[in-house]
């Protein structure tokens, strides 16, 4: 399978200073070995991924054209969709205590986001046929530097039990037994969807956006 080059993003961290501050508070609460501190997603980079794709210089303009046509293909309302970060969980779990991805996200699907994923699948840009799983990555073993031959999982259980960490998610340590668990990390509007370049960095530390489309029928309501 070709390596993905671009992804559809809801750039929550880039859009919302309050969320950036909460992620920064989480980073400050963590006491990680130097090798594990590189696993953290930067506050400007946290996002929801609606799909990944492999694009060439020839196919990128076609994907951008589809992106820009989304307002004519979606049932938009005057209000942008809201993302509520109320579930904490891991992906690629290797044991009771070890996993490769720690994430927070909405407990319920967001139909508009699922439809965007479907549109890009129907046009052949997204080839992953699995149902969309909305999640905002906080830690990922593939971010580790220096790179290892194979990504090494991290001890998420011990990380979450560090003093003050679970308070960043609006819960107490006494409430934690296992993941997934309900948390309270805020609700945020999603005014636009972006097509971003994988692994890129702009001057603010966010991913480079190649283009975007509104997710509201009322442009005046969007930043």
TrEMBL record:
Highest taxon listed in the record's lineage: Eukaryota
A GO molecular function held by the record: kinase activity
UniProt keyword annotation of Transferase present: yes
SUPFAM superfamilies: LigT-like
Segments forming domain A-kinase anchor protein 7-like phosphoesterase: 4-215
Keyword Lipid metabolism: no
A Pfam short name: AKAP7_NLS
GO biological process, one term: regulation of DNA-templated transcription
Protein name: Kinase A anchor protein
GO cellular component terms attached to this protein's record: nucleus
Source organism: Armillaria tabescens
Upper lineage: Eukaryota, Fungi, Dikarya, Basidiomycota, Agaricomycotina
Keywords noted in UniProt: Kinase, Transferase
């Amino acid at each position: 399978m070709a390596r993905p080059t671009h992804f559809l993003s809801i750039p929550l961290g880039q859009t919302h200073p309050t969320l950036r501050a909460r992620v920064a508070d989480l980073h400050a609460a963590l006491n990680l070995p130097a090798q594990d501190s590189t696993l953290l997603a930067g506050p400007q980079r946290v996002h929801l991924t609606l799909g990944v794709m492999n694009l060439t210089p020839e196919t990128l303009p076609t994907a951008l054209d589809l992106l820009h046509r989304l307002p004519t293909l979606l049932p938009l309302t005057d209000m942008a969709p809201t993302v509520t970060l109320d579930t904490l969980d891991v992906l690629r779990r290797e044991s009771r205590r070890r996993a490769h991805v720690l994430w927070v996200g909405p407990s319920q699907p967001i139909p508009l986001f699922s439809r965007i994923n479907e549109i890009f699948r129907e046009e052949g840009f997204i080839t992953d046929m699995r149902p969309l799983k909305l999640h905002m990555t906080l830690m990922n073993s593939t971010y580790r530097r220096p790179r290892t031959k194979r990504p090494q999982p991290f001890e998420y259980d011990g990380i979450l039990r560090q003093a003050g960490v679970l308070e960043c998610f609006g819960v107490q340590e006494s409430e934690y037994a296992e993941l997934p668990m309900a948390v309270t990390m805020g609700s945020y509007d999603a005014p636009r969807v972006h097509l971003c370049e994988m692994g890129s960095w702009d001057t603010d530390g966010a991913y480079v956006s190649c283009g975007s489309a509104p997710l509201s029928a009322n442009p005046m309501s969007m930043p």
